[in-house]
Amino acid sequence: MDIQPKIRVLIVDDHPMVCEGLISMLTTPEVEVVEVAYSGQRALEKIRRLEPDVTLMDIRMPDMSGIEVLQKVREANLTTRVIMITTYRNISYLLKSLAAGASGFILKDISREELLKTVQTVASGARFVDHQFLQGVLRDLDVPNYQQTELNPEIIESLTPREMDVLKLIVEGLSNKAIAEVLVISPTTVKGYVKTILEKLHVSDRTQAAVKAIRSGLVQG
Q1: Among 72, 98, 150, 176, which residue's beta carbon has the most beta carbons within 10 A?
Q2: Could you tell me the residue range of the domain that residue 34 belongs to?
Q3: How do residues 203-216 score in pLDDT, each as one tens digit?
Q4: Running DSSP on this structure, what letter comes out for residue 147?
Q5: Is-above-0.70 flag for pTM?
Q6: How many angstroms separate the CA atoms of 156 and 30, rounded?
Q7: CATH number for the domain harbouring residue 201
């Protein structure tokens, strides 16, 4: 029987108590916390040296913000997948983190179960954003291109029942893999549905599709 390698995690936070809590929550047969960094600069050094699968990165740190560290990680083509973690329900933090290439975004009041799920999801190659926070962002997001509150009836009618199922799950923040599991279809089929949905809604990515669906009332956020 094949033994799956542990997911190697680096924790980055300038508060030792937070780090201790995260270590306790992540210590499982599936996950190994390889080390802790208490500053952005030390985080960069340890990411280069340890090459962790996943890095849990605090956003607010005294020497360098987590978003700045993430940008440097991407510029250096380092392979770790970064989950931003913060106390603050700040829309700007979320958008800047995703724009900088974060693979996940969660709040520090997350449960142990959800934290482990997030780490496993991100380690598998998917993205994960705190669902409740994402819903609030999508409801409050004020982007000029998405001020329209009504969709053309022809666009609504063009969406098949299965495409609507997929769109609802996109709004919930599910990855293609997760959508495939819920609908009992292949990830490749889901990818095809997502492509068609984006074309029909005249948007370029999943977040824009979710914003448009919620703003128009097509899907409840």
Answers
A1: 176
A2: 7-129
A3: 887 777 877 787 77
A4: -
A5: no
A6: 44
A7: 1.10.10.10
